Every structure is written in structure tokens, then in C-alpha cells.
Amino acid sequence: MELHHLDPANLRPSFTSYSNNPPPLLTVKSSSKKMPDYNNTPQSQKQGLQFNKPSKKDLSRILRTQSAIKAIEKKANSSKYNNLWPKAVLEALDDAIRNNQWESALKIFGLLRKQHWYNARCQTYAKLLVMLGKCRQPNQASLLFEVMQSDGLQPTIDVYTALVSAYGLSGLLDEAFRTVNYMKTIPDCKPDVFTYSILIKCCIKLGRIHMVQQILEEMSGLGIECNTVTYNTIIAGYGKAELFELMENSLMDMLESGTCHPDIFTFNSIVGAYGRSGSIEQMEKWFEEFQLMGLKPDIMTCNKLVKSYGKAGMYKKMGSVVDFMTKRFYCPTVVTYNIIIETFGKAGNIEQMDEIFLKMKHQGLKPNSITYCSLVNAYSKAGLLSKVDSIVRQVENSNVVLDTPFFNCVISAYGHAGDVEKMVDIFMAMKEYKCKPDDITFATMIEACLAQGMIEAAQDLESKLVKASNTSERKFLAC
User: Fold this and answer.
1) Which InterPro entries match (predicted)?
2) CATH number, domain 371-472
3) Angle, to 10 degrees, between the axis of helix 334-346 and the axis of helix 369-381?
């Protein structure tokens, strides 16, 4: 069967390898110089700024997994590998799915379908669809659904629910609803509470809160009762939207159902919702109420309290929560320290922030990318560019796993300070850590270039951004 792009409405329905060499050190000398190409820098130019690799001990498991995936993936484009060892192929596929490496997963899946021993299974398709939803790849999900039908499989309710998730989480809410409506016409695949819970989650995520009640009414008409997950999804959604009356009404519905009871997720959603909005009294009230219901706060509850008190500038109470955690044997975690560091950083209290950062390291806790982002943002806001340099040096000498948001923070810091040369160096270092630039990366660099009068460089970056945004996955990678 020839595979081609399919309209999702009909319901028929590349992990880049990087060199181990250091990234190039680039210098921008004039406004006429174009920005360097992130993807096509010659090997001979790769020198200068570099970030040390994580230790072999820390990376041994990851490298084994990645090498296994790559070894299998290399065979995907050849027709001669049709009788490989099943365990190797299946494990590589599972690893790629678990790590959300959708390009690798689809290539390996294509190889799997060529094997003499291959038997199509709905469970495999469901797992792939869930992954594609997480990776926001609705086109690939639609094509995968078509391939499933070509394999002679009848989609199960799990497969349809996964497809709903893939469309909904990717922002194609109309397609998600169309899929649910189509499910109603299939005797053995009627939407269930899990399908509707996913649909509610997607509506909330896309800001369509008003549709939640419509879905609940439809569920009631079909005789489908909410479960604990459904209630928690609704409560969390209303809380994030600061619709507190609806949030509390949903909690009452949950209590009155007789079959669903509040759990720690309910506890944290309501406490967190009031805390985020600055309604400290309500937060404290519900903190006590849930304990009277027999629920005990966990580390996440405490972290929400710390963040809420910090945001409100109630530092004494923030410290009291940390003391409470210690007494309850909830040792403050990296997340706890990150919250406190971010709090003091946003308040411009650099001295206190630095003190907490040192305490964090003395406690034996390893700073992560989020920690360094908060530090860089605070130093940049305070105009302490030398401290940003210090953070970059610390990262160079650590095995912290970096991500695109961290690089964006550093690029922003240097860009706002007018140090375009260092900004470009950091941009090129992203490739070494397999961190792909996003819209924020390009927008920040464009703004910095324009501020320095580098018109051509800014236009070059704009063209790269447009090209990246127009790239769509019209070819199914499992071909």
C-alpha cells in the first residue's frame, strides 16, 4: 500500500545525530554578516566554546539505550533486514516510545512491519498514537491510523481514545470531537469514561473551559459516570482558570457521587489553585479541610505552599513550611530549592538567592537546568552579566542535563546586554547538547540583532524561523 498524507477529518486516519566535537566559536563583526547556520556548520570550524559532557557513569545507561535505538534505526531504510532478532527490535521501539523520540520510533516501527515474524497488534498502535499526541504530531497520528487499517486491524476503543488524545493535545479539537462522534457509530467502540476524560483534558488545555459542562451533560445522557480521574481533571482545570466556585462545586459533586473520593491530587489541585491566585486564606483553609478528611500533605503539597507564600512575599511562612517538611521527614528536594531560588530571584534579592543556592549544594542536591535558568534570569534582570558568565562556567564543569529553555535564558541575558558575540556562541552550543532552537530562541536573537543595528542578521534569522514553522511532516516516517 502506498502511504500518503491523509485528511484527518476522514478518520482514515528525525532523531538528529550530533557530532561529539565541540560547537563552533563564532564572531559577529558587522551588521552585514549573516547568522551562522545551526545545522550546516563544517566540522573544520568546530572549536572554542564547549560544555563538558556528563560522566560515563551517569550516561552509561542512556548511551546503551541510544546506541541500541540507532543500531536498529540504521537498518530501517534497507529492505534486506526482514528477519532480525525480535527482542532487539521490540526493545528499541519501546525505548524510543518511552523517550518520546517519535521520529526514531516510527522508523523502527516501519522496520518492525517488514519482519517475517511481525504480527500487527492494536496495543502497539495505541502506544505509538499516545506518543505522537505527546509530541504534537497529529499528521503522523492520522497516517499511522491509516497504516493500522491497512494491516487489517479493527481499531479498539483504546486506539480511538489514543487518537482523540493525539488530535486534542495537538490543538485539533474539532478532529478530536469528530473522532468521538465516529466512535458512537461503532458498536464495540463506544466512547467510555476514559475517552471523555481525555476530551475534557484537551478542552481545558486549549482554554475551552466552557465545553466541559457540555461534555459532562453528554456523559450523563449516555449513562457514563465520572471517575476520580475525571473529577480531578475538571477540578484542576477550573482551578487553573481561577473559576473557584465551579472548582468547589465539582469537589462537592465528587463527594456526593458516593463512588469517588478526594485524593492527594484533589488536595494539591485546590491548595495550589488558591495559592497561585494569592488567596492565601482560602489556601490555608482547604489545607486544613483536607487533613480533616484524612488526607495527609505530601512533598508536592509542601512545595505548592512554599511557592504560594514566596509569591505573596510571606517569607517567614515560607520558611515555616520548610521547617514543617523537615519535621515530617519530607526533606526539601531540588524542586523546593528551585522554588525558593526563583522566588528570591524574581524579588531581586540576589544575596538571599545566592545563599539558598549554596545551601542547596551543601545539602548534596544537584542543581538542574531549572535552577540555572532562575539564576541566569535573576542576574540578567539585575544587570550582573559577570555572574551569568560564572553560571556558564559552572555548567561547563558539571554534568547537568541542559535543555532549550536554559539556552534561551542565557541567549536572552547576553542579547539584552548587547553581547551578540556571546549570544551566538551559546546558540551554536545548543547543537552539542541536542537542544533544538524554538520560536523563543529566534525571537530573542532577532530582537538583540535589531537593537544592535544588525538588520541583515535579523532578516536571516527571520527567514530561518519562517522556514522552520512551515516545515510539516507530510511523509509518514514508517514507510
Assistant:
1) PPR5-like, PPR_rpt, TPR-like_helical_dom_sf
2) 1.25.40.10
3) 10
In 259-298, where does DSSP find H-type helix? 264-276, 280-292
What single-letter amino acid sits at 15?
Answer: F
Separation of alpha carbons 163 and 133, rounded Å = 8
pTM over 0.85: no
Of 101, 84, 99, 94, the C-alpha closest to 123 is: 94
Which three cell numbers mark 140?
Answer: 503522523
d(CA 155, CA 149): 8
Provide the total of helices (H) and of strands (E) in the chain, helices listed first: 23, 0
Classify residue 21 by its DSSP letter. S
Give per-residue pLDDT as tens, 211-231: 999 999 999 999 999 999 999
The C-alpha cell at 95 is 525505548
Residues 323-364 pLDDT 10s: 988 887 788 899 999 999 999 999 999 999 999 999 999 999
DSSP 13: -
Alpha-carbon gap, residue 321 to 410, rounded angstroms:
32
Domain boundaries, the chain: 225-296, 299-366, 371-472
CB 162 within 8 A of CB 132: no
Query: pLDDT tens digits, residue range 150-162?
Result: 888 899 999 999 9
